[in-house]
Amino acid sequence: MKKLKKVLALGLAGAMALSLAACGGGADSAASGSTAASGDAAATDSGEVVTLKWVMVGNGQPANYDAWLEQINPYLEEKIGVNIDVEVVGWGDWDNRRNVIVNTAGEYDILFTNVNTYTNDVGVGAFLDITDMIETVTPDLYASIPADYWDACRVGGQIYAVPTMKDSSISNYVVWDKAAMDAAGYDGSTMTDLTDLTEPLSNPDFQEYVTSQGSVAWPLSSSGATYLSFTYDTMGAGLIAMGVKYDDPEAKVVSIWEQDDMMEYLRLFHEWYNAGIINADAATASEENAYKPAAIAQGWPSAAVTTWGPNMGVEAVAYQWGPTIVSNDSVRGSLNCISANCQNPEKALQFLELVNTDTYVRDLLYYGVQGDNWDYTDDTKEWVHKNNADWSMAGYTQGSFFTVTPTDDFDFNQYDEVEELNANAEPSVLLGFSMDTSPVATEINQCISIAERYKSELLTGTADPDVMVPQMVEELNGAGFQEVIAEAQRQVDEFMASNGGATAETAE
């Protein structure tokens, strides 16, 4: 087995406005336990150890969390004079918990976020402007992430987040429990669109198998099937109801859920819900099922055998659904932000530097407790052996994939696939564009609240879209939705014109 590359060159070709080349500068020296953050110190100048609170989403607080703290905190204390306190919020509770801590200036130092909420939260002053700090306080962190990644995080020209170096293009896969699919006698590679799946998901043998596993065919939680609209670029506005189709040369801003392709998917999911393919409590289920006989997941092909299957305790197979796309939205798929109220922002940034450049810190976050969840295979620390899959933190929320020590159970480097996907991704027509929401801040905040209120019922198939979508759009329009779309279109047209492209106005 070849050793995992600590840094991958995730280049995108030529004239892209936003290159995703993952050429980490400081990560080459990230041997296990050897790389410290810039300004490495045993403690603060006063000798005080700073405790930082990091709030992230995942499968809930780990059962062995205290044992984990006993491993990571002494290491962090020695390196940068920091201890960490992590709150892992369950998927179903995440939206509410995140909203509360942001809107009440809750006690946190670092918060995981993503494209859905980032721009809006910056607009309300939740996060610290780290533009000037990155290069001076954490030069290794700055060097490990390409300039274009940092630019993708700019709002009003300033940087408020540390992006995660990962699968920063979007590729979605239909993931099957192979035993369930085999029971029904289907070949998943021949089913390339969601409309192809009704027959196998309804098959009596498939249904019998998944029932024996205590599941339904396509389980969902209240977060819903947000992947249905992944081909729409939401411009960083945080409003899931508005976007531009990634390959629309006219770059027309539209009401996403009214589009023919989206209505087709919503009707399909409603059909599945009524047929019992989707669980009856989907709109209110706070947690996602660990076991999913069939589902959509974002990742890369071999994740079926390295991640999705092992996490479910089954043999899984996966087949790509839809194109591979790169956009500002995809780069913003995993971000970590420092609170505007953080009392020790330099320490918080130094900690994020360790998370992204220090392999031992990265392994502890990614795999859990050494000696319980995992071990190094030998003193070289080049490979990890996972003892179990019990660790409940979500690895993609934390830091770079490319400083994680690979596991010994595969004879290939799965991140080579990530490199290839990122390099060959189709760029959004709005790659490099981020909407300035300030001219319509009141309207867009109202629309976000409305869209989020409808999301669970619409994106789980619970509601009839032919009834609920018009109802939602009427309420959105009453809150200024058309004004938001008009402002977005104005800015998009300026961007397209400055880049020599067609605009919605000139196309007419």
Topology (SSEs and partners):
Layout: E1 50-58, H1 65-80, E2 82-90, H2 91-103, E3 110-113, H3 118-123, H4 131-137, H5 139-144, H6 147-152, E4 154-155, E5 158-159, E6 162-163, E7 170-177, H7 178-184, H8 198-202, H9 204-212, E8 232-233, E9 242-245, E10 254-255, H10 260-274, E11 294-298, H11 303-312, E12 316-326, H12 328-331, E13 335-338, H13 345-357, H14 359-367, E14 374-376, E15 384-386, H15 415-424, E16 426-427, H16 441-458, H17 465-478, H18 481-498, H19 504-507
Parallel strand pairs: 1-2, 1-3, 12-16
Antiparallel strand pairs: 3-13, 4-5, 6-13, 7-11, 7-12, 8-9, 9-10, 14-15
How would you concisely characterize the structure shown here?
It is built from 19 helices and 16 strands. The chain has helices at 65-80, 91-103, 118-123, 131-137, 139-144, 147-152, 178-184, 198-202, 204-212, 260-274, 303-312, 328-331, 345-357, 359-367, 415-424, 441-458, 465-478, 481-498, 504-507, and strands at 50-58, 82-90, 110-113, 154-155, 158-159, 162-163, 170-177, 232-233, 242-245, 254-255, 294-298, 316-326, 335-338, 374-376, 384-386, 426-427. A five-stranded mixed sheet has the order 2-1-3-13-6. Strands 11-7-12-16 form a four-stranded mixed sheet.
Structural overview:
It is globular and about 65 Å long. The protein is α+β, with helices and mostly antiparallel strands and 508 residues long. A hairpin with an 8-residue loop joins strand 9 (242-245) and strand 10 (254-255). It has 3 domains: 26-167 and 331-413, Periplasmic binding protein-like II (D-Maltodextrin-Binding Protein, domain 2, 3-Layer(aba) Sandwich); 174-234 and 257-325; 438-507, no CATH class. It has 19 helices and 16 strands. Mean pLDDT is 87; it is low at 1-44. Helix 7 (178-184) runs antiparallel to helix 9, helix 13 (345-357) crosses helix 14 (359-367) and helix 16 (441-458) packs antiparallel against helix 17. The chain has a 5-stranded mixed beta sheet with strand order 2-1-3-13-6. The protein has a 4-stranded mixed beta sheet with strand order 11-7-12-16. Strands 8-9-10 form a 3-stranded antiparallel beta sheet, with no helix packed on it. Helices cover 37% and strands 14% of the residues. The chain has helices at residues 65-80, 91-103, 118-123, 131-137, 139-144, 147-152, 178-184, 198-202, 204-212, 260-274, 303-312, 328-331, 345-357, 359-367, 415-424, 441-458, 465-478, 481-498, 504-507; strands at residues 50-58, 82-90, 110-113, 154-155, 158-159, 162-163, 170-177, 232-233, 242-245, 254-255, 294-298, 316-326, 335-338, 374-376, 384-386, 426-427.
